[in-house]
Design goal:
This protein starts with a strand and ends with a helix. Helix 6 crosses helix 8. Helix 5 links the parallel strand 5 and strand 6. Strands 3-2-1-4-5-6 form a 6-stranded parallel β-sheet. With 332 residues, the chain is an alpha/beta fold. The protein has 11 helices and 14 strands. Bound molecules: nicotinamide-adenine-dinucleotide (NAD) and (2S)-2-hydroxybutanedioic acid. The site of nicotinamide-adenine-dinucleotide has 28 residues, from helix 1. One of its GO terms (biological process) is tricarboxylic acid cycle.
């Protein structure tokens, strides 16, 4: 058996972590042969709650889970980790946009960037879930200059999963038959959920979703806005932000990053932009990617029409504004 892998989850006493820890610890992310040591970080007032989570992890009796390290000390949390799920941050409430959380959350990601830089493995793979995820990931990377920028990503997989679920419901097919829906840009209401490359695989055939759903109004209005606003719809109903589906998406993201994407399949993740598709450089922008040998690569050369370009411009502009605001908050 392999040596245990050290994995940190921040916000470990919170809602998302409560679902995520079990998914990780039972081997669904890093593989069924990969023993794990889980580092659980939260803030001092949450240590009693965290102790309960630690008890429950023990009571799950999971063979791959070799040790659990609960802590409120970022040094302990980040030392020697190979994977980091940065979940710990304040969630938004009804009526807020995710960028309204910048003032409350962005400094967390500066501190954690610095700690990752000093104590984590240099090839650590970092997934930022805490909102606003793209800009928090950018700030985290900025404060971890000795770790490659490619190792900092933001979660838009939940939006991709939502998009594929909407398409499956419209077509009345199982969601597992739908793939390659793309999320461009920010994990915010300016994101561009794009069905242009999505496909349905059934009975050995692969069909483009846009060939089956010849209803442009549904694709450009109903589908698009329902995915953009799904997070707010969950908050309105639950009075708390999505947690189970966010945990599942975080697991999907990290699993594909560690173990690779299936040939022919595209996934979406927020990664450092190199300006592909005329997007602004040096923001964490969600692109279609494929992953091989632990390295993501933006899928280039997709046909992007005028409508799509205008959507990419809008979400790119918001990311530039968020970057500016985040830097102001940090320097204040
Ligand atoms: P929650 O309030 O239930 O849990 C957050 C936890 O983080 C709390 O236990 C809190 O004490 C902890 N925390 C706060 N500051 C911390 C710090 N400096 N270090 C370590 N832990 C810290 O919230 P949740 O529902 O788990 O959501 C967490 C974040 O994830 C929110 O910002 C939410 O908006 C975001 N989110 C993102 C996505 C996405 O798709 N990217 C999806 C869902 C939620
Ligand atoms: C989501 O998309 O569900 C999360 O980002 C939580 C939110 O604030 O919408």
């Amino acid at each position: 058996m392999a040596e245990p892998l050290r994995v940190v989850v921040t916000g470990a006493a919170g809602q998302i972590a409560y679902s995520l820890l079990y998914i990780i610890a039972k081997g669904d992310v890093f593989g069924k042969d990969q023993p794990l040591i889980l580092h659980l970080l939260d803030i001092p007032v949450m240590m009693d709650v965290l102790e309960g989570v630690v008890m429950e992890l023990a009571d799950c009796a999971l063979p791959l889970l070799r040790d659990v390290v609960p802590t409120d000390d970022p040094i302990v949390a980040f030392t020697d980790v190979s994977a980091a799920f940065l979940v710990g941050a304040m969630p938004r409430k009804q009526g807020m946009e995710r960028k309204d959380l910048l003032a409350a959350n962005v400094k967390i990601f500066k501190v954690q960037g610095e700690a990752l830089d000093k104590y984590a493995k240099k090839d650590v793979k970092v997934l930022v879930v805490g909102n606003p995820a793209n800009t928090n990931a950018l700030i985290c990377s900025k404060y971890a200059p000795t770790i490659p920028k490619e190792n900092f990503t933001a979660m838009t997989r939940l939006d991709q999963n939502r998009a594929q679920a909407q398409i499956a419901a419209k077509l009345k097919v199982p969601v597992g038959m739908v793939s390659n829906a793309v999320i461009w840009g920010n994990h915010s209401s300016t994101q561009y959920p794009d069905a242009s490359y999505a496909v349905v695989e059934r009975n050995g055939t692969v069909e483009k979703v846009t060939d089956i759903i010849a209803d442009e109004k549904w694709i450009r209005e109903t589908f698009l806005t329902s995915v953009q606003k799904r997070g707010a719809a969950v908050i309105a109903a639950r009075k708390m932000s999505s947690a189970m589906s966010a945990a599942k998406a975080a697991a999907d993201h990290m699993k594909d990053w560690f173990l690779g994407t299936t040939p022919g399949k595209i996934i979406s993740m927020g990664v450092i932009s190199n300006g592909a598709y005329n997007t602004p450089k040096d923001v964490i922008f969600s692109f279609p990617v494929i992953i091989e040998d632990g390295k993501w690569k933006i899928v280039e050369g997709l046909l992007v029409d005028e409508f799509s370009h205008s959507m990419l411009d809008a979400t790119g502009k918001e990311l530039l504004e968020e970057r500016e605001e985040a830097l102001k908050i940090i320097q204040a």
